């Protein structure tokens, strides 16, 4: 059994089956761990225990506002302490967390709020005005009962008269939530673009599937005293959300950037003694360029997980700078199917290959659905403990009759169990049909 497998299975065995309980345990066992939220104008720090205490107050406030178990609560905030508190509070309340991308237009935000029947939106004060203006229109948001405005975010704005001030929720007496979630309950609703570049679609994860993802990808770094992780700088997507929850559940000392800037990121590496990172290849390339122009280099950064596609050029450039960059493979529906390692040889890391995480299975099939030999390309099918529950919208059946998820990608699985994505799967005749 590999070192990663033993660590992953050990953490999975300790982690409770629901996120509220996992967050409570983490606040007790890793409460002293400090998370850093690096803004453009200031830096804020909060311990895991402090975030949990504040979230308990907000969860009590959500209950007082009538937010019930299973209702959707949308959160559209940058990486700040308030974002962490809001995420935890929604889960403690037994509601469904729906993070929203900061780059979305007001029209797109309204569309997903309407389609999800969200009961509450927690957002910056200046964004709250757009939503409140259309809430009671003919085609407005009849299910949206509350809009919570967080002040102090950029750009600044006042709280609308019909909005709810964030500080009001934080003033509630911290009480345990009234409801307890079950492992099979929906916990996360994440939106991802369709394969044809159309509107985003909602992907539902349960407490069980999200817990599995956090356990399987958080074990290696968890508990390492000197390890400091620079999290994905994106907010409102799966990578940003799981990075935040992973830090809170596993106690990994983490640094979050409110907005991406390569020079700011480089300063954060030095200031907080960062040893690992999770960045897209574009963010990593920008960081490497900033370090090359600086006399101080990359400080103690030793490894970087490349989110999304891996290119040989960026992995080799990182290697020359002393950073072992590696990739992996997954989808919003099945977040991390395979993952590389900083200990892999350069040619493997450059190819973006990764080994299947414990419990995951992959089949490579041809257009007729027949399995192909090892090393041959085909359609990637997957299943495992972190597989999603289903789609919010009515799409085609998400799984095969025997429970496999058709990822929509082409790839190959070699005889050593390494998976490599090679492109988008297109069945024979699909181009003609289109």
Write a compact overview of the structure shown:
The protein is an alpha/beta fold. It contains 14 helices and 22 strands.
Topology:
Layout (H helix, E strand, L loop, with lengths): L2 H12 L4 H11 L4 E5 L4 E5 H17 L7 E5 L4 H13 L2 E4 L6 H11 L3 E5 H10 L11 E5 L13 E2 H5 L15 E8 L6 E7 H12 L9 E3 L7 H13 L2 E5 L4 H11 L3 E5 H13 L9 E5 L4 H9 L3 E3 L1 E2 L8 E2 L6 H6 L2 E3 L4 E5 L12 E6 L6 E2 L13 E9 L4 E7 L5 H4 L1
Parallel strand pairs: 1-11, 3-4, 3-5, 5-6, 6-7, 10-11, 10-12, 12-13, 13-14
Antiparallel strand pairs: 1-2, 8-9, 9-20, 15-16, 16-17, 17-22, 18-19, 19-21, 21-22
- In CATH terms, the superfamily of the domain at 3-193 is ANL, N-terminal domain
Please list the strands of the largest sheet in the order they lie side by side: 2-1-11-10-12-13-14
Beta fraction: 15-25%
Number of helical segments with 4 or more residues: 14
Taking the sheet with the most strands, its summary is: 7 strands, mixed
Radius of gyration of CA atoms, rounded to a whole number:
21 Å
CATH topology description of the domain at 3-193: Rossmann fold
* Oligomerization: single chain
How would you describe the overall organization of this protein?
The protein contains 14 helices and 22 strands. The protein is an alpha/beta fold. It has a domain of 191 residues: ANL, N-terminal domain (Rossmann fold). The chain has a seven-stranded mixed β-sheet, sandwiched between helices. The longest helix has 17 residues. The protein is globular. The N and C termini lie far apart (46 Å).
